[in-house]
Amino acid sequence: MINREFVHHIIRHYLKYDKDNPFIFISALLAFLGISAGVMVLMIAMGIMNGTQKEFTKRLFVMNYPLTVLPMTQDAVSEDLINDLQKKFPHLKFSPYYTTQVITKNAGAVQGSLLYGIDFDKESQINHIFKEARGQKKDTFRIIVGDSLSFEMDAPKGEKVTLYFSEQEAIGFATMPLQKRFVVDGIFDSGLKAYDKAIIYTTLEAFHKLLKRKEGYYDGLHIYTENPIKEIDRIKAALPDSVIIEGWWQQNGNFFAAMEMEKKALFLVLLLIILVASLNIISSLLMTVMSRRSEIALMRTLGATKAEIRSIFFKLGLVIGSTGILVGTLLGFLGIWILKTFDIISMPADVYGTSKLPVDLTMSDFGLIILGTTIIILLSSLYPAKKASQTDPLTVLRNE
Question: Which residues cross the membrane (predicted)?
Fold first, then answer.
């Protein structure tokens, strides 16, 4: 039976500053500071990684659409298929589209782009960035471009630009690429420069007249839902074999897999800070054991059991470590609050999609930090406690 009052009294005694052995106290203090700093840095770093991932996810979710239906055979995505899906899933929103690659030219600047033919009203229901950018013109040959492309082409709203298509048109006895002047009816800003530079929206009618696309048959179908991961299997079961359905996370799988791997690697690397701090716990406890050998031997001769000696030094390590975790947690939340509240670190918005540093520490990440740190502290306290309990009182007192 362990005498808890006796154990706690000795722990309080050993935590006090010892003038004869100041290095023991300093080593314990360094261990405490190392664990506090490690937990704080881990919390802030994981919060930044998670916040950045969520920010990119939000941007990509808008520009890539939650779900996309693609044809496996010609004319597979038809108006009949869309009507059938609307009957089965009335809560979903649909936007059919055409797509082709074009070369954009204006004021001597040339840029390759991806042209989408869409229904402006349906697209506005599933893409708030497009909705904010669209103009009021009713011209068939009008386009909505990204702000990066508008800047490079020197094509503000109301300006006309020339689009060159891969299709050929006959000119006398020769052919040349099909071209058409379009008026810029709106400029969108998705926050991601690559998308703002490459994507152009125009009307379905422009594809009908220029590229002779069949009305009622499309190159694909964008679907909006609040829970695409949950809905994808249900929608897939209602689709014919002539089409496939993809989620936005599948279209960008490599990107998010790389971010997740980077997040795990960062967690393991920063956990080494706590591992190094735990070595200070081991060294501090071992120095305490060596300097208190006579006291340990005396306690043993007065009736203290091995279990009590082991409990003293094990709990001593836990006190140092748990105090470090508590202070590190408070500092971590304080640092996250400061980064969220004050614009201390600014980033280029055209690269990261936001000018403010995104920080979002999830409870799962926080739990992993606390769990990993606790395991390291527990393991660090075991060996010194075991070494203290193995002290032979007869040998020590004889040498004393």
Answer: 21-49, 265-291, 312-339, 366-385
Same domain, 87 and 56: no
> Is there a domain that residue 8 lies in?
yes
User: Tens digits of per-residue pLDDT, 258-282?
Assistant: 777 877 887 888 778 778 778 878 8
Residue 316's contacts (CB-CB under 8 Å, 6 or more residues apart) are: 11, 14, 15, 285, 288, 381
Q: Where are the beta strands (DSSP E) in the chain?
A: 67-71, 77-78, 93-106, 109-118, 142-146, 160-171, 174-188, 199-203, 217-218, 220-224, 243-247
The answer on 190 and 83 residing in a single domain is: yes
Local structure of residue 89 (DSSP, 8 states): -
CA proximity to 281, closest of 31, 24, 38: 31
> In total, how many domains does the chain have?
2
Domain that holds residue 147: 67-224
Give how far Cα 32 sits from Cα of 9, 188, 320, Å.
21, 51, 6
Answering whether pTM is above 0.85, one says: no
Token pair in block for residue 136: 């009021």
